Automatic annotation (TrEMBL):
GO terms for molecular function: ATP binding; GMP synthase activity. Homodimer. ATP binds at S29, G30, G31, V32, D33, S34, S35. Keywords: ATP-binding, Glutamine amidotransferase, GMP biosynthesis, Ligase, Nucleotide-binding, Purine biosynthesis. Catalyzes the synthesis of GMP from XMP. It comes from the Bacteria. Its EC number is 6.3.5.2. Residues 2-193 form the GMPS ATP-PPase domain. This is GMP synthase [glutamine-hydrolyzing]. Pathway: Purine metabolism; GMP biosynthesis; GMP from XMP (L-Gln route): step 1/1. It catalyses: XMP + L-glutamine + ATP + H2O = GMP + L-glutamate + AMP + diphosphate + 2 H(+). The gene is guaA. The keyword ATP-binding applies.
């Protein structure tokens, strides 16, 4: 039980004492942990912090712009945005195996991040949003989860850079990181977002990843999320549900929700014509620990509205299905 303003004051002093007048680099992913770390470090040392934001082209709709607005525009944080979409798409061309895709995206990420970091020759520190559960987890290892943290391979940087690690969230649990983020002025909606995997849409496009598929998926996913947020939740709170407050809408009543692109074409009708277009699956789950999960019993009207909107608004998609598989035996992601 700790007092937030006091905690921030203490954390800020600790960071200042640690880095002095040195320059710090941080890899911003758009995720909660790296965002909160960035906000905290910026509070402590301002312009001594430079963030590198690698856009792999597999982010959600407008996510890159949102990150830049939030940090560069609103908070005045120095952020270098690297648009590496073509580079990632090139490396992923022809690759269909999920684990292979993860490896490529992870390796490419390190490559791009290091290349950009190497230009910041004055930097002495690499900051990461490592939180307490990551510390425990990396002691155990062996999970397929490859988060932003494992991307930041200090070993890949030039010898003379030898960065020291700055991990100001190391002692915090996720819920504490979120509270800290809100206290530092990050938007509530951002801080309480569903988890998003490091490989992004790369594991939500089944099989080969193409920019065309990612563009269709992004739009379908955004419609789904918007409707979940805009639909009031009136049910009972799911026992053991991982949320402080009672959910107000279906986004808050689910632990993770997203669209998945299926590279399968099916026949449809539109006006007088026939369509032959791709399918998206909607996935929404409720879970406490993400090790097991139930599919969310979303209201049929909500599902119908999402389906209509996707098919009407996203040319190239003509069929929407809902995933009713639990975990186990299915996983949350489709790959
Ligand atoms: P599964 O699909 O294994 O997912 O039931 C459990 C949780 O882990 C997330 N996930 C990942 N996160 N890199 C990540 O950072 C990954 O490669 C990855 N694969 C799955 C998934 O989104 C869910 O929250």
């Amino acid at each position: 039980d700790w007092n937030m303003p006091d905690y921030i004051t203490e954390a800020v002093e600790k960071i200042r004492a640690q880095v002095g007048t040195d320059e710090v680099i941080l890899g911003l992913s758009g995720g909660v942990d790296s965002s909160v770390a960035a906000a905290l470090i910026h509070r402590a040392i301002g312009d001594q912090l430079t963030c590198v934001f690698v856009d792999h082209g597999l982010l959600r709709l407008n996510e890159g712009e949102m990150v830049m607005d939030m940090f560069a525009k609103n908070l005045g944080v120095k952020v270098i945005r690297v648009d590496a979409t073509d580079q990632f798409m090139g490396k992923l061309a022809g690759v269909t195996d999920p684990e292979q895709k993860r490896k490529i995206i992870g390796a490419e990420f390190v490559e791009v991040f290091n290349a950009e970091s190497a230009k910041l020759t004055n930097a002495k520190w690499l900051a990461q949003g490592t939180i307490y559960p990551d510390v425990i987890e990396s002691a155990g290892k062996g999970k397929k989860g490859q988060t932003i943290k494992s991307h930041h391979n200090v070993g890949g940087l030039p010898e003379h850079m030898k960065l020291k690690l700055l991990e100001p969230l190391r002692e915090l649990f996720k819920d504490e990181v979120r509270k800290l983020g809100v206290a530092l002025g990050l938007p509530y909606e951002m801080v309480y977002r569903h988890p998003f995997p490091g490989p992004g849409l790369g594991v939500r496009i089944l099989g080969e990843v193409k920019k065309e598929y990612a563009d269709l998926l992004r739009r379908a996913d955004a419609i789904f999320i918007e409707e979940l947020r805009n639909t009031a939740y009136e049910g009972v709170v799911v026992p053991g549900f991982d949320q402080d407050a009672a959910p107000r809408n279906w986004y808050e009543a689910t632990s993770q929700a997203f669209a998945v692109f299926l590279p399968v074409k099916s026949v449809g009708v539109m006006g007088d014509g026939r369509t032959y277009d791709y399918v998206v699956a909607l996935r929404a789950v409720q879970t406490q620990d993400f090790m097991t999960a139930h599919w969310a019993h979303l209201p049929h009207e909500l599902l119908g509205r999402v389906s209509n909107r996707i098919i009407n608004e996203v040319r190239g998609l003509n069929r929407v299905v809902y995933d009713i598989s639990g975990k186990p035996p299915a996983t949350i992601e489709w790959e």
